[in-house]
Write a structure and sequence with these properties.
Layout: E1 8-14, H1 21-39, E2 47-54, H2 57-69, E3 73-80, H3 90-95, E4 100-104, H4 118-123, H5 126-139, E5 145-148, H6 154-173, E6 177-181, H7 195-202, E7 205-209, H8 211-220, H9 223-236, E8 238-239, H10 250-270, E9 272-276, H11 291-298, E10 302-304, H12 309-321, E11 327-338, E12 341-347, E13 362-365, E14 377-380, E15 386-395, E16 400-410, E17 422-427, H13 431-441, E18 446-450, H14 455-465, E19 468-472, H15 478-494
Parallel strand pairs: 1-2, 1-3, 3-4, 4-5, 6-7, 6-9, 8-13, 9-10, 16-19
Antiparallel strand pairs: 11-12, 11-18, 12-17, 13-14, 15-16, 15-18, 16-17
Length: 500
């Protein structure tokens, strides 16, 4: 993936001076062994580093300040091996700006029933040490993830891994830059939003460049680079005959390659992690970027159509969580409402990421019928079957809301006259409930769609960001969802006032 760092997670173990140097040495050794054990798990995407055993308020505060200033630290795992009086943690937790996970575990898996004595009991006190920690986290209204179980448990690894993926995406957002080529589609509400509030809340910046700035980069692409890229297309994809070298429309493939090279150069030079464009602002471009956008998304860039910058940033975050795999910009385009089963046909005009292609994509050219430009080149393919989800980030004025709908992707029917990339899915819990719930929650028509990102990852991400989450899944009922939305209106109105 482009511009993707590999940060680390710091493991911090809590105790107190009361136990003396001998037991504290053992605590440190045990904590280090826990980290070594976790590090051997193939499920964890980020390196865990045993950072410190802390036993005083100053030690705790210093490590928290160090974490804040360490650009390679994406978050912390906290564990209380013994009892660690939580008033010691107040100052440090008050200044901590990085996300943290509270691991409720203990060093030993099984109790030595026949030999257990008070020395053993005093050394292995996580059962109430972590409860003391949990109280102060709750008292301070700190968003965090709690994972319970022995550190060797594969399920514990999976839950830590989900949080690590979310923490990595949050780390990736901090200081990130996203560019809008032109403005958004005219008169559309959901693609608008407060970019100042977004930067304050999420840590990334969104700014606009005139399409003319992009045109300069597109026109600067060399013929040699265009030739090489077109040759790659013919090796990788099933390029239709008219677009191949020597074909009647090969020049249009060359222009698509020029678009990809120019956009790629612009993004790389500016250090951008995602972008938007719109068919209503293409001055100086011959085509709406189709395959160029698809392939750049495949490299890890976030994208949103029609100037939808919030979805572009969300797609980038989801791609980071997914390690760049099987994640795309998407739109609920139209419905199959047969009494035998309701389904959604997801697609867009052009821009679906090839990371979700179920086979070899075709390179085709067809009229777009919108935008008033030349016929755009695009990748055409079907998405695979399997468990997936759609997610939408919306600006409600007084807060942001992340909406998630779990779906099941099914086999795409033959679509001989629809020359776009596409996916077909069935909503959970069912079509009518899911669509009504999505609309009640104010979900956008653009989404991030993934076979890899899970609801748990997105819930962890929302916790880190401090935003509302609405999950639509197999357990959703409209009566409960509507009540939850009403309750959330009150909670998020009052939440800032009760953080004392």
């Amino acid at each position: 993936m482009k511009l993707l760092a590999s940060p680390e997670i710091w493991f911090v173990c809590g105790s107190q001076h009361l136990y003396g140097p001998g037991p504290l040495k053992q605590v440190a050794e045990n904590a280090s062994a826990v980290v070594d054990g976790l590090s051997k798990s193939k499920k964890l995407p980020l390196k865990i580093v045993f950072k410190a055993l802390v036993v005083t308020p100053d030690e705790i505060t210093n490590v928290m300040l160090e974490a804040n200033n360490a650009t390679n630290c994406a978050g912390l795992i906290l564990w209380m091996h013994t009892f660690s009086p939580s008033k010691m943690w107040i100052r440090g937790l008050s200044v901590l700006k990085k996300p943290f996970l509270h691991l409720h575990t203990q060093f030993n898996r099984d109790l030595p029933w026949n030999t257990i004595d008070m020395d053993f009991m005093n050394l292995n006190q996580a059962a109430h040490g972590d409860r003391e920690a949990g109280f102060i986290h709750t008292r301070m209204r700190l968003g965090r993830k709690v994972v319970v179980g022995h550190w060797s448990d594969p399920e514990v690894h999976e839950r830590i891994a989900a949080w690590q993926r979310a923490a990595r995406a949050w780390h990736d957002w901090q200081g990130a830059r996203f560019v809008r080529f032109g403005d958004n589609m005219r008169q559309v509400a959901v693609t608008e939003g407060d970019k100042v509030a977004t930067e304050i809340k999420f840590g990334y910046a969104v700014n606009t460049h005139g399409v003319g700035d992009l045109v300069e980069k597109v026109n600067a692409a060399t013929d040699a680079d265009v030739n090489a890229l077109c040759a790659d297309y013919e090796k990788i994809y099933a390029v239709v005959k008219p677009l191949r070298k020597g074909g009647a429309r090969h020049e249009e493939l060359r222009y698509s390659a020029r678009l990809e090279l120019g956009m790629g150069a612009f993004l790389e030079e500016g250090g951008y992690k995602g972008f938007t464009d719109t068919f209503e602002d293409l001055h100086g471009l011959k085509q709406l970027p189709g395959m160029a956008t698809q392939r750049l998304m495949g490299q890890g860039y976030g994208f949103g159509g029609e100037g939808d910058w919030k979805t572009a940033t969300l797609v980038r975050a989801m791609k980071v969580m997914a390690g760049g795999e099987r994640t795309s910009f998407m739109e609920d385009y139209t419905y199959h409402m047969s009494p035998k089963g309701h389904q959604v046909l997801g697609s867009h005009m052009l821009e679906i990421c090839p990371s979700i292609a179920s086979g070899k994509a075709a390179v085709e050219i067809h009229p777009l019928g919108i935008g008033g430009k030349d016929d755009p080149v695009r990748l055409v393919f079907d998405a695979p079957t399997g468990e997936a989800l759609n997610a939408s980030l919306v600006d409600l004025g007084n807060r942001f809301r992340l909406i998630v709908n779990e779906v099941k992707a099914v086999k795409t029917p033959k679509l001989p006259k629809l020359p776009v990339a596409r996916a077909v899915w069935e909503c959970k819990p069912d079509f009518k409930t899911a669509c009504a719930a999505w609309i009640y929650a104010g979900g956008a028509h653009h989404t991030g769609y993934s076979y890899v990102v899970t609801t748990e990852m997105l819930e962890d991400f929302a916790t880190i960001a401090g935003i509302e989450t609405v999950v639509i899944n197999a357990d959703t009922t409209l009566s409960q969802l509507k009540q939850d939305l009403r309750n959330n209106e009150v909670y998020y109105h009052l939440a800032q006032g009760i953080r004392v």
